[in-house]
Design goal:
The structure is a homotrimer of 400-residue chains. Chain A contains four helices and 23 strands. With 400 residues, chain A is mainly β. In chain A, a hairpin with a 2-residue loop joins strand 21 and strand 22.
Chain lengths: 400, 400, 400
Amino acid sequence: EEACKEVEILSKPTQKWSGRVHFDYWHFPKESALPNYLDTGNAAESPPDFIGFRRLRYGVAGDVNETMNYKIEMEFASPDSLAFKDAYLGWTELPWLHTVLLGNQKRPYGLDHLNSSRYNVFMERPFVIEAFNQDARRIGLQSYGLSDNEAWNWRFGTFAMQDLSKPGHQYSDNYQSEVAGRLANTIWYDETSGGRGYAHWAVAGSAAFPSGGGADRFRTRPEARTDGKWFDTGVLGAANYQLLGLEGVLNVGSFSVVGEYQTVHANRTAAPNTNFGGGYVYAAYWLTGEYTPWDRTSGTLGRTKPLENFWIVNRCDGCRSYGWGAWQIAARYSYCDFTDQDVFGGVGESATLGVNWWWNPHARMQFNYINGRISDRVVAGAPSTAGWYDALGLRFMVDF
Amino acid sequence: EEACKEVEILSKPTQKWSGRVHFDYWHFPKESALPNYLDTGNAAESPPDFIGFRRLRYGVAGDVNETMNYKIEMEFASPDSLAFKDAYLGWTELPWLHTVLLGNQKRPYGLDHLNSSRYNVFMERPFVIEAFNQDARRIGLQSYGLSDNEAWNWRFGTFAMQDLSKPGHQYSDNYQSEVAGRLANTIWYDETSGGRGYAHWAVAGSAAFPSGGGADRFRTRPEARTDGKWFDTGVLGAANYQLLGLEGVLNVGSFSVVGEYQTVHANRTAAPNTNFGGGYVYAAYWLTGEYTPWDRTSGTLGRTKPLENFWIVNRCDGCRSYGWGAWQIAARYSYCDFTDQDVFGGVGESATLGVNWWWNPHARMQFNYINGRISDRVVAGAPSTAGWYDALGLRFMVDF
Amino acid sequence: EEACKEVEILSKPTQKWSGRVHFDYWHFPKESALPNYLDTGNAAESPPDFIGFRRLRYGVAGDVNETMNYKIEMEFASPDSLAFKDAYLGWTELPWLHTVLLGNQKRPYGLDHLNSSRYNVFMERPFVIEAFNQDARRIGLQSYGLSDNEAWNWRFGTFAMQDLSKPGHQYSDNYQSEVAGRLANTIWYDETSGGRGYAHWAVAGSAAFPSGGGADRFRTRPEARTDGKWFDTGVLGAANYQLLGLEGVLNVGSFSVVGEYQTVHANRTAAPNTNFGGGYVYAAYWLTGEYTPWDRTSGTLGRTKPLENFWIVNRCDGCRSYGWGAWQIAARYSYCDFTDQDVFGGVGESATLGVNWWWNPHARMQFNYINGRISDRVVAGAPSTAGWYDALGLRFMVDF
């Protein structure tokens, strides 16, 4: 037995490298004066097109030994604004707490945010998802759990609210801390079809204490990659705020419907309290017969495997066949309200049509058409408090 | 057959990691007043020596599946000015278009620029190569083709003219686009000697539309790693410009002669049109009997394999021998003219003597001595419009 | 024989990837007015807590062929202040010079600095170690040698004194060069116990020539991760300075005692010469029976292997046992004097209690409590020239 232990102790950490390339094109064919002003500062000037990398990452994850792990992934899409994404060390196989990660990681705020950008149905996340959780990851300590029958999974932890993915640390006695959690239930999972049918619901919440540090600001782009963030509450000056989120998924074969609602109540120090919120609902359908897998361990979407790849399929007889990949269509309605009391962050409404063309399990093309409206948005010098816009988005992505 | 397809669909992306370390030393022993002024702003102060990394890269490339690929390579030589180099996703085995890459990649502008810095004969590229194609790579969509007999290869595509390797994207409705291409012909390739003899010619061209965006500026260093760029046309204010390039290679065993010519015609909006151009010719010879391989798939230089490595060679009998590596000598004459009409970017002439000492296929030392002249260069406050300079360069490089 | 050589010549470079994650928390429970002022500019405001990554690295090293190697490691802990750490190419198996590395590497300045942060006993290095060798690595050319019986090892080389780990190069005719070396002797090494007993001494020195370039400034934090550097001589204006260091280690089983002394004599151009210096001594003991290995090839601490990992240990019979990892306690006394003549950089004294909890050979937790004093420190506007402080530090680290 001594000899065996010796072997275990000397085992080396593992390394698994991965990365992704997401290349985007966005065009804004037509819009009214307010969106122009919000984006360019000029009511007569359209939001400029976007061309370039949306994500360009590589990094490494692995196990240190049987009960510890780590991950470092860098975002190289804008080399002049380098940031880390997942960057942590962790413990696994813990009693009660299961897995605990220390470092930069996603906050437990709800489905669309927790879904990987590799699998999400639309190119950009909905208003409230982005606004209440800008850039998604924070430095914190979080537990990840799963029930034995895989029906329940949860994550909860404490976080510094400032986005530290560029400085890497903070020097401050005001931690701007929060405690947040998500409890998720895969209430139906059709084992016999390998997961072609499932239903899920979850509740998420956060108690956040910005305490004058400035992290209580909610802003976001119009679900498209504009230069400016059109919705913006400004810094609220809240002593604390509470977030509550509800979400649900129903998937039957190639068809799925997903919805989420989030609300934030902010207790401001020198002004009346405010309530912001919103949500979205979308339906999606695979024209080519695939289905969107469900990851019961994390309560998030999984990687779709096309029934046949595009465009060459090697056959075992040495010949080649040709395939069309997997085609998915989807429609989303999204709503947000960041205007309350003396805060005029904007009320948004957006309809998105999406087409996803998966060439193979690690590559796809996304096409989005968006028609949106913004109202109750007050900005000094703006020509109006309401407006509308169209947007067209195209993404090419691979991951490895 | 069903089962077989299943296997293919699940195949994982591949990863191949690589990188390079290039360490440079440059010294400027003697020069006249104008080069001093151009580099330091002081006619009496010599260009300072350069010590440090010229290139320090690592990254990953691979196949996503049978018909798609990707690459990300970061340039870490100046961490405070991080940039990506090759960064793309692509499709292979396409009809007509063969390979198509989307993302940051070299423009199809001619031989010396397309040669890898790992294989190029001289430390720095000639005047016109650098000036007409600053920092080489642009975000674009490019096709790469090859004829069945490997005699012809070509690449053509469309690019955003701004160098986006640091921001990673552009927000602009003026794309500053161009279409460019190169058609190359390996007119002679001696198969029987394994490629010790070959001849090549190619034509390259670009139609570029800066349209007031500022990408129509040509500038370059004096073929040495000076702090300043001594040749500079300034922004031309051209609606469009056209580039034409011609190149030829003749290799007979250890001897090769290479030449290239490029010219740019710019149609300026509010000023007379201008013509800039130049070229180079070099001869190189392997004292130790090696030859420079030719890559017929891309029309560029390949990796030289020394007949014996420096300095230890392991023998199969368990003993060690000692080798001297591979030695190559080379001489280059280069000329450029960036002065026309009211633009006084400078006329340059430069003679370079080079020695390349390959220690093994992945490591070499380069030594360059340069004597150059600059004339017709008008800069406010400069002591003269003409001058001369000497430069000594030393490079140590490995790649992996 | 020809065929065999051919095989060797074609051998590919090797790649070995590695990295580390160090996550720190620092708290400053109580201190007098001077430390407050030095850190925050306000005598009434405590040094703020630190939360975040201390180190976050990954990179690659390998052999180019039988006689050359390379390494590139990036520090991603502060992505907005990216730097490289080890970054070099090198030659091995050389006569007389053994291994020679060209590029960014640690200067040969003494034990605590040469020890990897993965193995060092305390969270931060002592005053003089940090102050005389800020950020440790410089671009230079250094030889690394080892005697056949492994009793003696040495390293010596020449370096540019400016820290170039962010720009990657320098443009300057004032190289600010130095020559430095370290000669180390493992005077006792108990082979029969596998190295549980050993004694070591070494002498290190540097002749440095800042020559007005500004690299003759010594400053450091108080052995804790404060925002400010509390000890600071300012730029001395020295034509040259000389560093001398002495060090010793005695290890008997689980117990070790280590000490080091360094002194710098600076010849200032327009002011009287100055002498600065200091040292430290620490004792450490493994409560759980382990020992700290010694690396005779480099004269530095090695990686400790816990007798049993924390907290799960897989047994060969398929069952699991539970372990407590390895526990080490340590105490350090450190002293520095950066005040001489008209320079009032500060006199420091610091006592540190440390606990190291190794979970497995690649992961540990460190806890440090520090009580320190600073005197003879003159800063404009400061409330006093002397003060004291407490600090608590916690680190989680893994490497892979």
